[in-house]
């Protein structure tokens, strides 16, 4: 019996693959966003609204992860952006290697930004860096204003928080101010946008932020 | 549910070291897992047990060292974060920065 000292990161393989993705994005001048939320918060609706708003302004690509079906990819394709669907077949998050495998399907030289719609899940995707420049967390008001405190990992490493479905506030038990305060407790550096994909409120501001990042 | 994929990554690392160091069986793995890594220890043990069954590492034991989030305040004070509130007891500031608590590290292997 002997002991082998290691001191390695458990997900070092994923981190290496993520770094390769990141290098590829940087080489082609593509700004990558990893979009994370619970199921049903409005990730696909957000991407549809974003694609419409940015149409003719920048070239967007979308990579969508789901356990099953190509429903989301079909919805997004109708908005005229190149899209690919990753069917994880049960896996609850995307990993960097799978994302890397799918990047060959995009003409990266033609893209300005790539949004990766992660699998709807507020726990597992937090541990897996995909090579993104920014992690964007999305929550919707019906989920409750204490969500950032219940799932801190998802907000701690994000640079942006999008609060969706603010048009539903009169009908649900949620205070947007409390939600913002809770999010800032977990991560004081968060950039926060309040929006509704139904009324389009907040979409121009969020898209403006995205366009700003491309100039960096 | 991501414990299964973390277990797969862990056992891939063990295999990498097996090829490098030439051992036959790994009997124990020591890990450091921070509270903020959101890893359920029981689910991880279950996944490792299931994945090693029938192989050379069957019955491998996991020793897990848990770490808690630490915050460092601009006044120099370091403290353990309770309930995600970063309030510095020394100066009252809430702008302390988080240091640690999200580790997901493999520390050493016991091998035969």
Beta content of chain B: 25-35%
Look at the structure and give the mean pLDDT of chain A. 94
- Strand order, largest beta sheet of chain B: 2-1-6
Our Rg estimate of chain A from Cα atoms comes to 17 Å
| Largest beta sheet: strand ordering of chain A | 4-3-5-2-6-7-8
Helical coverage of chain B, percent range? 25-40%
- The strand count of chain A comes to 8
- Write the CATH fold name of chain A: Rossmann fold
User: Would you tell me the structural class of the helices and strands of chain A?
Assistant: alpha/beta
Give the class-level CATH name of chain A: Alpha Beta
- Per DSSP E runs of 2 or more residues, the count of β-strands of chain B stands at 6
What is the helix content of chain A?
25-40%
Specify the overall morphology of chain B: elongated
Instruction: Give the biggest sheet of chain B.
Output: 3 strands, mixed
| CA distance, first residue to last residue of chain A | 53 Å
- The share of residues in extended strands of chain A comes to 15-25%
Shape of chain A: globular
The count of helical stretches of chain B stands at 2
Tell me which oligomeric state these chains represent: heterodimer
CATH class (first level) name of the domain at 3-68 and 101-111 in chain B: Alpha Beta
Report on the structure:
The complex is a heterodimer of chains A (216) and B (112). Chain A has helices at 12-28, 43-54, 71-77, 96-103, 147-150, 153-156, 176-186, 203-214, and strands at 2-9, 31-37, 60-66, 83-87, 113-117, 134-140, 160-164, 191-194. Chain A has 216 residues and is an alpha/beta fold. Chain A has one domain (12-214): Rossmann fold (3-Layer(aba) Sandwich). Chain A has a seven-stranded parallel beta sheet, sandwiched between helices. In chain A, strand 3 (60-66), helix 3 (71-77) and strand 4 form a beta-alpha-beta unit. In chain A, helix 1 (12-28) runs parallel beside helix 4 (96-103) and helix 2 (43-54) packs across helix 8. The radius of gyration of chain A is 17 Å and the shape is globular. The relative contact order of chain A is 0.18. With 112 residues, chain B is α+β, with helices and mostly antiparallel strands. In chain B, helix 1 (3-21) packs across helix 2. In chain B, the strands form two sheets. A three-stranded mixed beta sheet of chain B has the order 2-1-6. A three-stranded antiparallel beta sheet of chain B has the order 4-3-5, with no helix packed on it. Classes of the chains: A alpha/beta (216), B alpha+beta (112). The interface between A and B is medium-sized, with 31 and 33 residues.
């Amino acid at each position: 019996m002997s002991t082998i000292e290691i001191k390695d990161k458990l997900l070092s393989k994923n981190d290496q693959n993520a770094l390769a993705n990141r290098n590829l994005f940087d080489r082609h001048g593509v700004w990558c966003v990893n979009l994370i939320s619970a199921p049903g918060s409005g990730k696909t609706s957000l991407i549809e609204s974003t694609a419409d708003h940015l149409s003719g302004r920048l070239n967007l690509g979308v990579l969508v992860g789901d356990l099953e079906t190509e429903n989301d990819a079909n919805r997004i394709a109708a908005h005229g952006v190149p899209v690919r669907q990753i069917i994880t077949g049960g896996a609850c998050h995307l990993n960097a290697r799978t994302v890397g495998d799918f990047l060959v399907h995009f003409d990266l030289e033609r893209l300005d930004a790539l949004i990766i719609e992660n699998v709807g899940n507020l726990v597992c995707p937090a541990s897996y860096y995909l090579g993104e420049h920014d992690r964007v967390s999305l929550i919707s008001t019906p989920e409750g204003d204490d969500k950032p405190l219940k799932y801190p990992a998802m907000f701690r490493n994000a640079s942006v928080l999008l609060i969706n479905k603010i048009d539903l506030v009169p009908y649900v038990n949620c205070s947007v101010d409390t939600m913002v305060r809770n999010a800032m407790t977990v991560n004081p550096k968060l950039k926060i946008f309040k929006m509704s994909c139904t009324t389009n409120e907040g979409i121009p501001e969020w898209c403006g932020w995205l366009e700003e990042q491309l100039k960096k | 549910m991501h414990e299964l994929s973390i277990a797969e990554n862990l056992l891939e690392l063990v295999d990498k070291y097996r090829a490098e160091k030439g051992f036959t069986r790994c009997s124990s793995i020591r890990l450091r897992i921070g509270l903020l890594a959101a890893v359920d220890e029981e689910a991880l043990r279950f996944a490792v047990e299931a994945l090693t069954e029938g192989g050379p590492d069957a019955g491998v034991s996991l020793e897990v060292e848990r770490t808690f989030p630490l915050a460092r305040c601009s006044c120099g004070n370091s403290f353990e974060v309770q309930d995600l509130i970063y309030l510095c007891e020394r100066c009252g500031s809430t702008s302390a920065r988080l240091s640690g608590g999200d580790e997901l590290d493999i520390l050493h292997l016991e091998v035969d």
